[in-house]
Amino acid sequence: MYAEQSIVQSFSVNDTANPSLTYTTTEELIREAAELCTQIVLEQDTMVEIEAPVNVLFLVYQIGKLHGAGRCSRKELSCYIQVCGDIHGQYSDLLRIFNRCGYPPDCSYLFLGDYIDRGRQQLEVITLLISYKILYPECFFILRGNHECKIINKVYGFYDECKRRYSIKLYYVFQVEHAFNLILLMDLFDSLPLCSLVSGRILGMHGGLSPKLTSWSMMDDIARPLDPEDNSLAMDLLWADPDNYTQGWARNTRGVSYVFGTDVVKKFCRDMDLDLVVRAHQVVQDGYEFFADRRLVTIFSAPKYFRSFLFRMFYYSMSSV
C-alpha cells in the first residue's frame, strides 16, 4: 500500500493553512491509488451495508450540538459515523471536517458524492478520499454523486483541472471516455457504490428516491462499472430531489429524474422499514435541511459553493450506542 500511504503523507493533512498536492505526488502515484481504490469498491456491493447501531432520536438531538462550534469534543465525535455531503473541490474545508471530527481510522466516514467540479482543489479532495478508502475500507465509505459522471465533470471543471495540472490521461483514469484512441484500464467513478444502508435503518445516497426502488434486491441487479442511463434507478439515486410543493412524483426541472413529495418519503420509509433517508445534492443555507417530518435530511458540506451564499458546512453524525 505504498501509493496511498505516500499520498496521505505528501498532503500534510494536518495543516489547513496551505493544503495541496506536492510536486512529489506524481501522476503515476495518483493513478496507482485510483486503480487500487477501483478494485476495492467493486468488491463491495452497489448498496454498501454499514453495520453501526444507530439511535435516530439521539441523531436529531445531536443536530443542535454539532451545528454550534465547539460544543462537541473530538472524543465525543469519534463515537459517530460522520456523514458528509457535497465537497466540490473545497479541500481546506474537507480538512476542517477531519480536524473537527477526527482522522480515519479513529473516526468513520460516509461521503455522499460530488467530490469534484467547481472548487479549486478537486484533485486534492478525490485523491485523499480514495487513499483513505484503500487504507481503511471497512470504516471509510465514498458513494457516487451526479458529478462523478462524464456528462457533468467533463464540463464543470474536473477535466480542465486534470489537463492543467497533470495531463488529459489522468482524467481518463477516473472517468472513461472512449475517445482519442486511448487505452483505458479502469474507471473509478463508474465503479463507485450508489447508496448505503446503515444498520438496516438509514438509507444514504447522493440524489434521492426512485419509483423503481421497491426492494433492496433490485440494487444487486445494478452491475458496475456503470454509465447511468436516463429513466433508470441509478439515475434517480444520483439526481432525484425532494420537493415541498409536489405530491407523489413529478418531472424534475433539472431535466433529469424526478422530484418527490413528503408522501413518497413517508410511504417509502414505512414500506422499507427505514427510520431516515440521508442525501446531499442540493445547496441548503444552513448546511442541512429536514423534509417529510424529519424522515429525510439533506446535507451540504461545501460552504463556498456560491460565494454569494452564506451558509454553514455540515456533517451529520450517526451515534453508535
TrEMBL record:
Q: Would the keyword Hydrolase be found if you checked this record's keyword annotation?
A: yes
What reaction does this enzyme carry out catalytically? O-phospho-L-threonyl-[protein] + H2O = L-threonyl-[protein] + phosphate
* A molecular function (GO) term: protein serine/threonine phosphatase activity
- GO CC aspect terms: cytoplasm; nucleus
Instruction: Report the EC code(s) recorded for this entry.
Output: 3.1.3.16
Which keywords does this Swiss-Prot/TrEMBL entry list? Answer: Hydrolase
Entry's Pfam families?
Answer: Metallophos (PF00149)
Q: Quick one: signal sequence residues? A: none
Residue ranges occupied by any Serine/threonine specific protein phosphatases domain in the UniProt entry: 143-148
- EC top class named in words: hydrolase
Query: Is the keyword Hydrolase in the record?
Result: yes
- State the family it belongs to: Belongs to the PPP phosphatase family.
Its protein name is: Serine/threonine-protein phosphatase
- The protein's organism comes out as Haemonchus placei
